[in-house]
Design goal:
α2 crosses α8, α3 packs across α6 and α8 (252-270) packs antiparallel against α9. Strands 1, 2, 3, 4, 5, 6, 7, 8 and 9 form a nine-stranded mixed beta sheet that branches. The radius of gyration is 19 Å and the shape is globular. The chain starts with a strand and ends with a helix. The chain has a domain at 259-293. By secondary structure, the protein is of the alpha+beta class. It is 40% helix and 20% strand.
Length: 296
């Protein structure tokens, strides 16, 4: 049994003790999953590391169980937009892999984003994994580059340009890595921590046509990574979500927690204008704690 905890900008409501403890647990998962753990994203030692994150934690058992996997995304300010989300980092302990945890983490993330952003939100993702690139293209809307969107639109171009100019650190991409602004490809290095050989069929998707499309993009320069820009549409998610219920992702408990977290996110935007909101904020923290305990 696993418990999934959705959090939107938890740095605004976690205590310092909670932040330190969870960061330590996340690093344990990262050390077991990655060749090395960089000082970036949710692994960063910055005091504000969780302020701009959207995280789903997978715990073994109830709310106090150890963290066995997580997905961590970053909210990024883009010129001309309120915010976009970079889909970021997913890690699952090796002994817990091949149990559908990664899919359930992503489904929980989508449910949370649909709650907090009911009108949808633009996103970015960077990967050299064919299966990841294909999966994102099939489950989200208006993705470039993809077989369904032959030409980048103005919105795609604006987001990609700002990402390349101002937000490389959030993607763990060095400043000297060349970005192809027509193909949306970072010509990186095969020594990259996240690199996946596109020829490795273990990282391919079942959709052969989409595999071939991204193989062509990644074969130009060894070590390349594709920057995808697209839109997370709640209406599309409903269709995808209905077909994914077979893995048992959509529990009532998770739905309630997602709505509590979504309401917390809305309150976080209002705190500067309405200081009295702090009382409600503390109440919601208590409600979350009570509900976690009820699920044990």
């Amino acid at each position: 049994m696993y418990t999934f905890e959705p959090h939107h900008q938890p740095g605004l409501y976690w205590t310092t003790k909670e932040k330190d403890h969870i960061r330590q647990e996340l690093r344990i998962v990262g050390e077991a999953t990655l060749p090395s753990v960089p000082n970036y994203q949710c692994f960063s030692d910055s005091p504000s590391v969780f302020d701009d994150k959207v995280i789903v934690l997978a715990r073994e058992g109830g709310s106090t169980g150890r963290i066995v996997g997580f997905v961590s995304c970053v909210l990024l300010p883009i010129d001309g937009f309120d915010t976009i989300i970079h889909t970021g980092l997913t890690c699952v302990l090796p002994e817990k892999q091949r149990q559908g945890l990664q899919s359930r983490l992503h489904t929980s993330l989508h449910k949370l984003l649909c709650t907090v952003y009911p009108q949808g939100i633009w996103f970015t993702s960077v990967s050299s994994s064919i299966s990841s690139l294909v999966g994102i293209s099939l489950k989200t809307a208006n993705v470039f580059p993809s077989p369904d969107v032959a030409q980048a639109q103005e919105t795609h171009q604006r987001i990609a340009k700002d990402i390349s100019l101002r937000h490389r650190a959030a993607l763990n991409i060095d400043d000297d890595v060349m970005f192809d602004c027509d193909r949306f490809v970072f010509y990186s290095s095969p020594d990259s921590l996240w690199y996946r050989d596109p020829k490795d069929k273990g990282h391919h998707h079942r959709n052969v046509a989409y595999n071939n499309y991204y193989m062509t993009l990644l074969s130009q320069v060894p070590g390349s990574e594709v920057l995808q820009v697209g839109f997370m549409d709640p209406a599309l998610y409903v269709k995808v979500g209905n077909t994914s219920k077979k893995i048992g992702h959509a529990s009532t408990a998770h739905s309630i927690l997602a709505y509590i977290t979504g309401f917390q996110a809305l309150l976080s935007k209002s705190r500067s204008m309405f200081p009295s909101v702090d009382g409600f904020w503390q109440g919601l923290r208590g409600l979350r704690t009570w509900y976690y305990m009820r699920q044990r």
